[in-house]
Amino acid sequence: LEHQIFMYAAQLGSISAVARKIGKDPGNLSRILTRLENLHGGALFSRHQGGLRLNPAGEKLYQSLIKATEA
Question: From residue 57, how far is each of 20, 47, 60, 63 by CA, in Å?
Answer without folding.
Answer: 26, 14, 5, 10
